[in-house]
Amino acid sequence: MAISSYSELKTAISNWAARNDTAFTDRVDEFIDLCESRIHYGAEDPYKSEPLRVMGMEQANETITISSQTTTLPTGFLEARSLYLDTSPKVDLDYMPPDRFWQSLAAKAGSAEQPSIYTIQGTNLVVAPSPDASYTGKISYYKKLDPLSASATTNWLITNYPNIYLYGCLMEAQIFLKDFEEADRMFANFRSSMGGVVKQDDQAKHSGSGLSVKVDQAP
Q1: How many CA atoms lie within 13 A of 46 on its CB side?
Q2: Per-residue confidence (pLDDT) for residue 211, from 0 to 100
Q3: Distance from C-alpha of 76 to C-alpha of 123, rounded to nearest angstrom
Q4: What is the 3-state secondary structure (H, E, C) of 147-187?
Q5: What is the C-alpha separation between 92 and 87, in angstroms, rounded?
Q6: Cα distances (angstroms) measured from residue 214 to each of 20, 40, 157, 184
Q7: Distance between CA atoms of 17 and 171, rounded to whole angstroms?
Q8: What is the mean pLDDT of residues 152-176?
Q9: Residue 111: which pLDDT band, with cuts at 50, 70 and 90?
Q10: Residue 15, CB-side half-sphere exposure with 13 Å CA sphere
Q11: Is the confidence at residue 219, as pLDDT, over 70?
Q12: Alpha carbons 165 and 173: distance in angstroms, whole number
């Protein structure tokens, strides 16, 4: 069966695991949540994987008002790509890690000025020097997938690469079932699927073409 929605994914997880009992199906939403967390943030051993950062997750030039040194980041923010002040001419802000940011001359400046650098702390964007006016910023960043649920049945990833969701959820399911041999197999499929998308994304970026060819999808 095709997998392109939340309900189809839930059915596929139960079918592939050959488990339709309540003790299993009541946990399927948890498997999906765990899979999405792994996609967004990666994970460490014993099932180590990198977070997914590809063009389909990019949010380009979203407007953000910078009127104080600390500004709340957009909903779903994962990782910054770029930030500039929408002035004439535009002013690109340079990113600094938090430790270097707070040691910089800009952060230590006593007077308010036009910001020139930024860092990320928690769910906040922090700029320096402190702004001397309210600026319109444009931020490009990687954004979380819309989490799958009964009220949000699709997102970019399940539409284009349902195999990533399927294998990631099945890995979590097999860990729950304590079948670690099968969990290892599903993890290998998950990593292979993730790697295929990243490779294709990299090729698209270097060629200047759009993302047009899909990796093999699970039945």
Answers
A1: 7
A2: 46
A3: 10
A4: CCCCCCCCCHHHHHCHHHHHHHHHHHHHHHCCCHHHHHHHH
A5: 10
A6: 30, 20, 11, 24
A7: 10
A8: 97
A9: confident
A10: 12
A11: no
A12: 12
